[in-house]
Amino acid sequence: MSVKVRFAPSPTGKLHVGNVRTALVNWLFAKGQGGSFVLRIDDTDLVRSTQESEDNIEIDLKWLGLTWDERYNQSKRFDRYEEAAARLKAEGRLYPCYETADELDRRRKVQLSRGQPPIYDRAALSLTDAEKAAFEAEGRRPHWRFKLEGKRVAWEDLARGHAEVDTASMSDPVLIREDGLFLYTLPSVVDDIDMEITHIIRGEDHVTNTGAQIEIFEALGAKVPGFAHMPLLVGADGAALSKRLGSLAIMDMRADGYEPIAITSHLGKIGTSDNLEVAASLQELGEAFAFSKMGRSPARYDTADLDRLNAQAVHAIDYVEAKPRLEALGVDLGETFWNTVKGNLNRFGDVVDMAKIVTGPVTPVIEDAAFAAAALELLPDAIDADAWSTWTGAVKDKTGAKGKGLFMPLRLALTGQAHGPDMAAMIPLIGRERLVQRLKGEAA
Q: Mean pLDDT of all residues in the chain?
């Protein structure tokens, strides 16, 4: 059977680097194995789920290049979840519980005060029909728990190696709430079975859940898929990144001018043995991906690394690819212009400032009027590829200026900036008329 993975986001907010990393690793693994990638929208919470969030998930994934082979909405599959729940109830694996949240909290506190683990005591299993009826008469509605077998559940984890969970140390998980809403666990397992998912790839915070989920797969008579649990992301300082994910939304990063390949290269390589350099394409990233390269320590997410990769990505864009984007910004000044300035860009949008150096107006910075006047007097008539070398040589001979003392005053006068692209390539783009005006101290 070919590899088939899934990404199942909830449409209740923005996609951020944490869940996009999960989507990316699933996609890279599947494509590297010649398999397929399923987008499954976890919209069982009909109150919190929104169409806007669902649309934005698709926009973000497409922008990143993470296209899907199949797509589903869990909200359209409630009948299947009801069927699975009915089977588990009939077999005694799903049982009703009537405790309130306050009652459960008090029990946990008592257990902790006695030095006992705060595990659900399965009191509901001993309820008589009369007691259940009495609770119903009070207006209580049951939540439903899955009865774990209380055994050691083991699997070979693609990212962690041999893994084990003792379900005897866990509370029986709630699969259905009092209001009848299915929690994530049962729909996820049912969908994985029906969609023939071969591998479940997610963060290591789900390791404990995996033990319970494997028991549910077995209870439903299904083959258990493979699992991979990745180390979580932390900030550059090693602190948990979860508190900051709101500021790391993909749509915001897109608006800030980050390149998709920079984001995917960063998320695909941090925490691995690969060099942190921008990939030429998602295909290249997928061909290089392997769980064996993934470390066990948390992956450090450092925006400085992303900025560096983004600059690399911009520098690698050729004019054919850049042209429509330059046109959209109104700064398509030709291939020579693009090739001259792109090496100085951190974000693609910075090209607008570079174009202004060429088209003006630029307010020149004249530090020494006599020096500028001498330079103007020596300015060649033909501003071609050799003009800068010829001109600066002549200015050096006349003024005695050299090195930074020669080049910096000219750059400031002609561009208004202390840093920028190669001046030999820039002055033909600026043109002699503007060069003359700027050397005179005029905005042009």
A: 96
The kind and range of the H/E element at 161 are strand 161-166
pLDDT tens digits along 212-265? 999 999 999 999 999 999 999 999 888 888 666 666 999 999 999 999 999 999
State the alpha helices, DSSP H only, in 330-431. Answer: 335-341, 351-359, 369-378, 387-399, 404-415, 423-430
Task: Give me the average pLDDT of each 10-residue run along the chain (444 residues).
Answer: 95 94 98 96 94 98 99 98 98 98 93 93 97 96 98 98 97 97 97 99 96 99 98 90 75 97 98 97 96 95 97 98 98 98 98 97 96 97 96 97 96 97 98 98 96
Which helix (H) or strand (E) segment holds residue 71: the answer is strand 70-73
Question: How far apart, in whole angstroms, are the C-alpha atoms of residue 220 and residue 209?
Answer: 17
- pLDDT per residue as tens digits for the range 344-363: 999 999 999 999 999 999 99
Cα angle: 337, vertex 338, 344; to 5 degrees: 105
Question: Sign of the CA dihedral 279, 280, 281, 283?
Answer: negative
Task: Classify residue 248 by its DSSP letter.
Answer: G
Task: Give the class (CATH, top level) of 369-439.
Answer: mainly alpha
151-176: pLDDT as tens digits? 999 999 999 999 999 999 999 999 99
Pick one of 3.40.50.300, 3.90.550.10, 3.90.800.10, 3.40.50.2300 as the CATH number of 80-176: 3.90.800.10
Name the β-bridge partners of 95. 145
Element housing 320 (H / E): helix 319-329
* Bridge partners of residue 97, in order along the sequence: 143
| Phi, psi for 429 (deg, rounded to 5) | -70, -40
Q: Is 233 helix (H, G, I), strand (E, B) or coil?
A: strand
Question: Which CATH superfamily includes the segment(s) 1-70+231-316?
Answer: HUPs (3.40.50.620)
| Helix orientation angle between 17-32 and 51-64, rounded to the nearest 10 degrees | 50
pLDDT for 244 equals 66
Measured between alpha carbons, how far is 344 from 419 in angstroms, rounded to an integer?
9
Where are the domains positioned within the chain?
1-70+231-316, 80-176, 319-359, 369-439
